[in-house]
Amino acid sequence: MTVPQPDSWQTPAPLHPTQGLPTLPRCSLIPTPRLLSGLAGWTLFGLLSVVWPELTVWWLLAGGLLGACVARDAFALQRRPPLAAGRVLAPALPLGVWHPVRLRFDNPQPQPATLTVFDHYPSAAAECADLPQRLTVAAGGWIELTYRLRPLVRGEWTFAPVQVWLDSPRGLWQRNDRLGEPTTVRVYPDFAAIARYLRLTADRQETLLGIHRRRRRGEGRDFLQLREYRIGDSLRQIDWKATARLRKPIAREYQEERQQTVLFLLDCSRRMRAQDDALSHFDHALNALILLAYVALRQGDAAGLHGFGGERRWLAPRSGPGMLPALIDGVYQLQPTLESPDYVEAVRLLLARQRKRALVVLLTNLRDEDQDELRPAVALLRRRHRLLIANLREPILDDVLEQPIHDLSQAQLYATTCHYRLRRERVQEELRQHGAIVLDVPPDRLPAAMVDRYLDLKRSGRW
């Protein structure tokens, strides 16, 4: 699978709209409301003939004419060839984003075709708007309709053939056809939102995401060059030998160290099933993971993944532009499980696979009872790696504390929330004392917070 660059992620792959004729057999004919209304009128006419027997002949004559018209209409519809149909859809869709889907219908017959259309999208994984639709295709012509689709579950999903109810010439019958071929799409984490974030950041600060390498005086680890001393430089930067030789203050200039490693430790346990908006905490974590991986790869670093908590997934750290598609392919089908997280086991497996020092980014949802289990896990990691814990905080906690208090129940809820947050903050403070960097932010702010902290570490050289 090849994932395009962010600027082209929104461009759908072209499909031939007329490809694929119906592959399923046509169903039996269905009477329309018009036919049912005619039959109801004829039945009422028969009741009248009971009261006035002289109307019986006319009732029988009307029945014969109606039967002949109905039979002829059904015969004409049954003999009519189906339309050609095709679906134009991007092969990769971002999660939680409304996306247009186009359906095209070709009518090669010399008569117009009136039909009602419903597309069998994967209803378990998406929601749609603007379906069903009713339209008329001109004789020998074609028509396109568009409806909107929003994927809600990541993974690989299949669209069944389009369902079409084709009207008979007189509108008395409908034929249920299945047109076109099934279409398989992949639903990825919200790369569209990531692309928008990247463009917004570039407008605000063009060098934030490594588009232009930033050089900072006295920061970084890799030596770059010698230059004249400037006001604000650290005394540690002065090169005394060059200063004595040139008889003026000379300072060393450094650049950010490259070819480092960012390793994501992704929690796939039941903790990440929490959901505050259209996306779960796990989906927010994947969005932040992909964004930070993109930034790290642009900075020349390597990125890798270790999943734990019921779903074990290992992607060895690699650098280069090909790693981002591999990373997205490796996580787009991951779903949080019902198991509990085992931080110590996850750390031991990571240490056995990753010998080189790395920035380990733990994406999880901490609880106050995790203190006893996290303490030995952090102690194991800090011996060889730098640990950044990205904790997703439930936005409802902030909402409760911002609400005014009017009665006893609200006061009790406020006190309980404060107590819960205090216990969580104590756990986070203890983790900081053990050498971990802890981020505690709402899910929608996690991507920006992780990127900012990563760049701070790159600038300071405290990897």
What is the name of the CATH topology of the largest domain? Rossmann fold
Per CATH, the architecture of the largest domain is 3-Layer(aba) Sandwich
From the alpha carbons, calculate the radius of gyration and give it in angstroms.
33 Å
Beta-strand portion reads 25-35%
How would you sum up the global shape?
elongated
How many β-strand runs?
20
Number of helices: 11
Helix content: 25-40%
* Largest beta sheet: strand ordering: 17-16-15-18-19-20
N-to-C CA distance: 33 Å
Output the CATH class name of the largest domain.
Alpha Beta
Q: How many structural domains?
A: 2
The secondary structure category is: alpha/beta
- The CATH superfamily of the largest domain is von Willebrand factor, type A domain
Q: Low-confidence spans: pLDDT under 50, at least 5 residues?
A: 1-27, 203-220
Please give the largest β-sheet: 6 strands, mixed
Short description:
This protein has about 475 residues and is α/β, with parallel strands linked by helices. The chain folds into 2 domains: about 5-25 and about 80-185, Sandwich (Immunoglobulin-like), CATH 2.60.40; about 260-460, von Willebrand factor, type A domain (Rossmann fold, 3-Layer(aba) Sandwich), CATH 3.40.50. Helix content is about 35%, strand content about 25%.
Report on the architecture of this protein.
There is one protein chain. This protein is an alpha/beta fold. Helices cover 35% and strands 26% of the residues. It folds into 2 domains: 6-26 and 82-187, Immunoglobulin-like (Sandwich); 261-460, Rossmann fold (3-Layer(aba) Sandwich), CATH 3.40.50.410. The chain has 11 helices and 20 strands. A hairpin with a 5-residue loop joins β10 and β11 (173-179). Residues 1-27 and 203-220 have low confidence and may be disordered.
